[in-house]
Amino acid sequence: MRGDTVHLTRDELLGYFLRAATPREDWRVGMEIEKMGRNAATGEALPYDGGGPCVLRVLEFLEGRRGGAPIWEGEHRIGINGEWGTISLEPGGQVEWSSRPLASLDGLADELHAHLAALVECGVATGVRWVPFGVDPDLPWTSVPWMPKARYGIMRPYLTARGRLAPRMMTQTASIQCSFDYESAEDFRRKFKAAALLDPIAVALFANSARADGRPTGLVSFRQAIWRETDPARCGMPRVMFEADFSLEAWLDHVLGVPAMFLQRGRGLVPAGGVPFAQLLARTGCSAAQLADFETHLSTIFTEVRAYTYIEVRGADLQPDQLSFAVPALWTGVLYHEDALAAALELGRGVGRHEAWASALESAARDGLDGRYGDLPLREAARALLAIASRGLASGAACAGTGGSGLEALDRLADHHGLSRSS
């Protein structure tokens, strides 16, 4: 249904999510991984273009190495679209690979390994070193060039006015995100709630950003602190998620209440004026909100878990390459097996109030597995979550395939932290 032929209403937007419901046999798993490049000789951040190591040379190399078509914005090459997924640029030149939605973890593992191998080759060929952390540990954010994308020209002043650390978020952070299908509004509710409640455990397991500006920050995930001071209206997790009657409709109402940052007009983006998206639904004629505006708005919801036509889990810092695959493996085992999902929701009851969850998230960011998750030590909660995910993968979770690649990834993660994933 074309957005430019429909006057958007709340019911139409609810239908947008309901129509995305997918039968279990068609579920897919996807991931996104961001990396920051630095000049291997000087340690400087990469400019967009120029005579030395730069983002444009990275894009050109990856297109030549892997194929695909360049993505342009005006005269600037800003990404690649290929059979293997897409490459896009974040504000500070972070190179983000988004996989295709895949039917098995085994296939996703192959795609991830191919991407990581291409980045290694790219670094050698272009003189680029890839930062293996969720926050740049050395450079001040003011030294990082901004990418020539219209989106970031609007986003930069908007978020900077609302969060002290928003410029760092845009220029200096990198993460791993995973996407999952749902088969009904009730399935959406349960998966979204489980992913949100368990997010502090995942933050502790995947914390990898302890330094910034050349010194310790006092946290194991400074990236989490950065998000807490970016924009309170669109980050963290809204209180509605912790209500007993949380639903897909409640999530939609939250999204509609978040101020809109962009509108799609003509050939590009224009500022939306920061009014709640719900107010845009009342507009008519040429200024009426379109479906493309709503989809762009969804991309500016930066909660720990968010939704498009799928559920996206966002809490993991960028990992060392050998641990990257553990992120989709963990969440597939938890969210794509019914018994595992039920056990995850039970584990999450300990932080079922917003205040308890926020406290657990802060503890995870500060102390990692030495922190607290409600009444539990986070290390104990992490061990329980790894056991739940492992049972899910071993017992036939959707998209698990043979389960082998996912279980091996969880073993590596458990060994890294000195944990056992067994029940």
Question: How does this structure look, described?
Answer:
The chain is an alpha+beta fold and 423 residues long. It has one domain (3-319): Creatine Kinase, Chain A, domain 2. 42% of the residues lie in helices and 17% in strands. The chain contains 16 helices and 17 strands. The protein has helices at residues 10-18, 55-66, 105-126, 150-160, 166-172, 185-197, 199-205, 222-228, 248-257, 277-280, 291-298, 326-335, 338-348, 354-367, 378-394, 404-417, and strands spanning 29-39, 69-73, 76-82, 85-89, 95-98, 128-131, 175-180, 211-212, 215-216, 235-236, 262-265, 268-271, 302-303, 305-307, 311-317, 372-373, 376-377. The strands form five sheets. Strands 1, 2, 3, 4, 5, 6, 7, 14 and 15 form a nine-stranded antiparallel β-sheet that branches. A two-stranded antiparallel ribbon has the order 8-9. Helix 7 packs across helix 15 (378-394), helix 12 packs across helix 16 and helix 13 runs antiparallel to helix 15.
